[in-house]
Structure formats: structure tokens, C-alpha cells
Amino acid sequence: MNVLVTGASGFSGTHLLRLLQSERVNIFTHGPVKGILGRHFDTPVHDLHALVDVVRHAQPDYVFHLAGIASGENYSDFYSVNTLYAANLLRALEIAGWQDSPVLLVGSAAEYGVIQCDELPITEETPARPYSHYGVSKLAQTQLGLTLSRSGRKLVMTRPFNIIGCGMGDHLSVKSFALQVAAIIVKKRPPVIRVGNLSSSRDFVDVKETVKIYWQLIQTPAAHCQVINICSGKQIIMKELLHKLIEFSGMAIEIREDPSRFKPIDVPSHYGSPEKLRSILGLTPVKNVNDTLKEILDELIISMQKDRV
Q1: Angle, vertex CA 113, rays to CA 269 and CA 87, nearest 5
Q2: pLDDT (tens digit, 9 = 90+) per residue, 102-125?
Q3: How many CB atoms lie within 10 A of CB 188?
Q4: Per-residue pLDDT tens for 163-178?
Q5: Which of 8, 24, 108, 137 could form a disulfide with 29 if both were Cys (CB 3.0 to 4.6 A apart)?
Q6: CATH of 173-201+235-269+288-308, one of 3.10.50.40, 3.90.25.10, 3.40.640.10, 3.20.20.20
Q7: To the nearest whole number, what is the mean pLDDT of the chain?
Q8: What is the distance of C-alpha 164 from the center of its chain?
Q9: Residue 214 near residue 104 (C-beta atoms within 8 A)
Q10: pTM, 2 dp
Q11: pLDDT for residue 309 is more than 70
């Protein structure tokens, strides 16, 4: 079995590759940065002819499109990577004759945008009102997938909520908290944590559980042509996450608000309904968030201690 993965060097991509390795499939990756496993192709993401060649070499039974950017100053980059890359990849599969291979497109809960309290929990039927270029560009990818699905393509459009775990981006709040706590533990900084808004609540899912769900969904015919939330259905207040990390440290740590860390738009509450996922797979993410937080913190402490040697 051959599997093609884009965005393989990223947070979720790295964990997906490890899962695929355990499944003993032949792994092929595409993108500007090589993943930890598999045969890699680094052709330009917008070179359609080169992508066709990649597909012909990989002959993929399944395709995971995880590539995307979540932050940046040039808004055109969001559409170039998050939307056009997907369009070229899907077209390349057609030209190469592999249009029947199931494809999983990773979107985002950011596609829903600003949600009112009476609209919670967020279902796949909740109107999408993205307010960021990231959310708009991911919604465009999802709409592309839905359009092609109507012509018979086997596409799964996922909308993961807040994915956390070892290797997550430093720009994300949970990682920022953990980095600061770890640095305090190894005595690299004074016992003060600087934070933005701690009153908002979010729906968190563990990255290892998430990629397992991706793998199950792409192999499940009932998931094809569907938009599916990847979420726990539970909301956790950011302040609770921070206090749990501080509790793990066993130290007295001061929490100090930093105006520069507040977001221009910060949705108060954002959590999803996993009912559609449950109806398709018979399961939903169940890993305790505290266990994932402990894993993140422990890994950072070990890394920082090694740096000191």
C-alpha cells in the first residue's frame, strides 16, 4: 500500500508518518521540507506538471493533504498554500489517473469563525463565518473538496479543533505556557509567566489521537464526501490549562498579564460537536488533556536540560 503525505514535516505530519510507519505502508512525501520518513519529493507546490510526476511515481492508494500555514504577514501566502496547493494536488491526481484514490484534506475549526453562545456546540451544519485569512483560505479548500466530491471524488474534509501535543508550534498559547513553565523549572527564567487572555475556552484534541482518526476516516467509505469535525465536545478554559501546568511544576509561579499577548479578536468560547465523527467511526477523542499537557511539559524540560549540558 502506498500513501502520499503533504505537510509531512509539520506538527501533525510528523505524528502521522510515525503512525503510517507502524502500519507498514510505503510512505511518499511532498513539500518544501522533508519529513522524518519516506521518499521525499520537493518539487514546487504550484508546479502542476511536477505534481503529476510525483503522483505517477508514488501511485498512492491514499493521500493526506496536511500542508498549510497558520500565520504570516503576507495574506496572499495563505491562499497560495492553503487553497491553491490543494487544488493543484487534486488536479494532478486526475491527470495522472489516480483520481479514485481517497484524499483527506485537513481544514480547521477556524473556518467557523465567530460563533455566538447559542450556536454551541459547533456542528458541521453551523454556518462558516471565518474572520481570518487562515480561516477563509481553509474554507476555500473545503468548498473545493465538496465541489469535487459531488462529481464522485472520494474526499474527506476534516475540521480539527485545537490540536495539542509534543512538537506543536511555539506560537500557540498552550506551547507558550509550557515553554515558560519548563524554563522556570530548569531555572532559565524567574518564576513569572506572561500571558494574554485566560478567560476564553477551547476544545482540545491530542495529536496522536487525531492522526489515528485521520487514518481511520480515509479508509472508511462513509466518511468520503463529508465534512467532519475532529473535536472532543468539551470546552476547557485557558486559565485551567495554565494552572495545571503550574501544578505539574510544583513551584510557586506568578501569572502576569501582558497586553502584547492579547489577540485583536478572541472568541470567548469555541467547542465542537463530535456526534458526526461518532456516527461514522463509533468513537471520538478521549485522551485526557492533562495527560497531553504533562507529555508536552516533560519533553520541553528534557530538551532544555540537554541544552544546558
Answers
A1: 140
A2: 999 999 999 999 999 999 999 999
A3: 14
A4: 999 999 998 999 999 9
A5: 8
A6: 3.90.25.10
A7: 96
A8: 8
A9: yes
A10: 0.96
A11: no
pLDDT for 204-233, tens place per residue? 999 999 999 999 999 999 999 999 999 999
If you count them, how many residues does the chain have?
309
CATH 3.40.50.1820 fits 2-164+204-230, yes or no: no
Bridging pattern class, strands 201-202 and 236-237:
antiparallel
Between the CA of residue 47 and those of 60, 85, 137, what are the distances in Å? 19, 9, 19
Tell me how far the alpha carbon of residue 222 is from its chain's centroid.
22
The structural domains of the chain, with segments of one domain joined by +, span 2-164+204-230, 173-201+235-269+288-308
Which strand (E) or helix (H) includes residue 140? helix 133-149
Looking at this protein, which amino acid is placed at residue 37? L
* Axis crossing angle, helix 238-249 with helix 289-308, rounded to the nearest 10: 50
What single DSSP character describes residue 128? P
Mean pLDDT of 127-143: 98
pLDDT at 134: 97
Instruction: Give the residues across from 156 on adjacent strands.
Output: 104, 226
Task: Find where cell 474534509 sits.
Answer: 157
The pLDDT assigned to 141 comes to 99
Instruction: Tell me the DSSP string of the chain.
Output: -EEEEESTTSHHHHHHHHHHHHTTPEEEEESSS--SSSEEE---TT-HHHHHHHHHHH--SEEEE-------S-HHHHHIIIIIHHHHHHHHHHHHT-TTS-EEEE--GGGTBS--GGGPSB-TTSPPB--SHHHHHHHHHHHHHHHHHTTT--EEEEEE-EEESTT--TTSHHHHHHHHHHHHHTTSS-SEEEES--S-EE-EEEHHHHHHHHHHHHT-GGGTTEEEEE--S--EEHHHHHHHHHHHHTS--EEEE-GGGS-SS--SEE-B--HHHHHHHS------HHHHHHHHHHHHHHHHHHHH-
